[in-house]
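look at this:
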Amino acid sequence: QTVPEELQNGGGFGYVVAFRPFGTVSWMQTVVASPDAARYVFRNETLPPFSPYEVKVGVYNNKGEGSFSPVTVVYSAEEEPTRAPTTVLARSLSASDVEVSWAPPRENQHKGRIQGYEVRCWRHDEKEENAKRIRTVGNQTTTRVTSLRGNALYHLAVRAYNTAGTGPSSAAVNVTTKKPRGWTTLPCTTSLSTPRPCTANLDTRRATDPSAISASSSLSPWLQVLYRWNRQSSTSVIETNKTSVELSLPFNEDYIIEIKPFSDGGDGSSSEQIRIPKISNAYARGSGSSTSNACTLSAISTIMISLTARSSL
């Protein structure tokens, strides 16, 4: 910063700039004769990029020299990083977010500071030059890329940057975002034609009506079968990705059953509660009847639950 005129204390005011390579003994000096000067440029074509120098600035006028400022360290201009980050990893966090991490280049492989990193992310069916760009600052070596498309393949690459520009890119890595929420609502029915104890057979069949299948129909969600006694609040859960599952139900108990699809992208909506009434011993010995309920299951498949007789007698 320049010295105000009232503090120059005489004519012939100017500055003395002293500098030396960091770690050396001898100072080089130059005179800047203008009292309004606020900078000095030292040019040397052999100067390596990002070389540290110790600098101090003094003052003088016609009566002699004044004091010097404290010594500070400055650097010559840097070059952009010459090496790419390594060990780039990516993992899907959700249908719209992925996390990227990397290791920085070794310190002796670049000629300047690394001020941060630039992560580029582009979908497989997009051009790399149109990639989404996220910049980190400082030593941060992990970041999150958001607002992506669900169940889509993405490519990601990382490069370091500083004031001179960006360095070379790492090799691209691939990651597929998780499956999104969004299940098609399809009808399902339940039928009861047997006495207790019995076995509940859960069958899954693909819907055949194309208009009833959502954009998520290519997904294969798991199913959760939740069941409990009508008089209890605790619920048992069976998870399966198969087309059938068996539930052994006790004698003389009311049961409530729900079915819910789920996947990496999240849970689908539960079906309506299906109440299976208890069946008496007398009923179990003979007559047999049938009841049917209608329920709605938010899924990409049509679900059938059928109960068949298995007499304990």
Q: What stands out?
A: The helical segments are 281-284. Residues 224 and 239 are 5 Å apart (CA to CA). Residues 183-200, 204-220, 281-313 have pLDDT under 50 and may be disordered. The radius of gyration is 37 Å.
